[in-house]
Amino acid sequence: MNQIHITKVTKELPKYCRETKDILPFVEFWLQGQESRFRRKVIKIFEGAAVDKRYSIMDPEEVFTATSFEDKNNIYVREVKKLGTRVLDKALKGIQWNADSLDYLITVSCTGIMIPSLDAYLINAMGLRQDVVRLPVTEMGCAAGISALIYAQNFLRSNPDKRAAIVAVESPTATFQLNDFSMANMVSAAIFGDGASCVLLSSEEKAKGPKIVAGEMYHFKDSTHLMGFDLTDSGLKMILDPSVPQTISEHFPDIVHPFLARHGTTMDDINHLVFHPGGKKIVETVEALFGKLGKNIDDTRETLKLYGNMSSATVLYVLERFMEKQIPAGDKGLMLSFGPGFSAQRILLEW
After folding, report:
1. Are residues 256 and 190 in the same domain?
2. Same domain as 216, residue 180
3. Among 64-68, 117-121, 168-172, where is mean pLDDT lowest?
């Protein structure tokens, strides 16, 4: 069986950046019509979100202005094309691959709507081949970064000597709901940021980088209500059930141990955890679960602090941190993310 290697991971950030402390005056102005106790609670959510700064495709004045769904989606479409092109170009140049050497292109985004999807624009902008196989992954939320890796792995496993690119571009900022004062909107506003990432993979014999040993999905029964978006006249309205951390905790043993056992390994053999930072509470929940197994998710916590949760792209930011380390051959890693459905996606890596 041919081996699948992750050969390059890179990121691209939008031009606007603010520290959380500098966003608080905008939040206070936005909430001025609400009762004082509620305002204090929301400010505490922002201050305690474990996100020091975040990047955005819009400046804060635009975010906190009542624009239409159409206006914000137009900004999303314009900026996603720019970020997607830049991050793919940066990744290809970083490994000295020609754009027309790509056989498979996966684009990932759930925070706006565009048809044709981003991959069609990248084919034109980057000069990809006319027979490149394209797959847009659009409605899998935070889990989709790993979903895309699983799809790429399946394609490359079936096709030796091929190359694949994953381009994940997300702008949760474009989904911010100015007239929604639900806790789901408050929490998501406090933890989310915008960003783009690209992963290049290869099934060529000469390819270097950690290899994907296996990738699997795990679907929680009867849990579609836990996370997602409602499509409203004003845009994509966040659904975020408070029971998500507890649900993850209950399913955790079934998510991790049988998957590893099927591929001849255990948590004792895992040296590195590449976990998606969904938010402070999910990070704390999973950190406690992994901590009992003697593992840490320091890189996950640091990624949340520096960028916030950028939906599907975030776990790829964590992966990039590991790609930049000098990791000994033979070390194993576990990638894990959760998203709407409700689902958990897992990948077993070996350096």
Report:
1. no
2. no
3. 64-68
pLDDT at 327: 92
Residue 65: alpha-carbon gap to chain centroid: 26
Q: Which value, to the nearest 10 degrees, does the dihedral of the CA atoms of residues 88, 94, 97, 99 take?
A: 20
In which band, very low, low, confident or very high, does the pLDDT at 50 lie, cut at 50, 70 and 90?
confident
| Whole-structure pTM value | 0.93
Select from 176, 202, 228 the last residue of a domain.
202
User: Is 6 within 8 Å of 202 (Cβ atoms)?
Assistant: no
Q: Report the distance separating Cα 178 and Cα 294, nearest Å.
A: 43
Given a contact cutoff of 8 angstroms between Cβ atoms, the answer to whether 339 and 346 are in contact is: no
Decide: 196 and 86 in contact? Cβ < 8 Å. Answer: yes
Place of tokens 């975010």: 63
User: Could you tell me which residues are beta bridge partners of residue 235?
Assistant: 232
DSSP, residue by residue, 228-279: EEEEETTEEEEEE-TTHHHHHHHHHHHHHHHHHHHTT--GGGEEEEEE----
What CATH number does residue 324 fall under?
3.40.47.10
d(CA 29, CA 69): 21
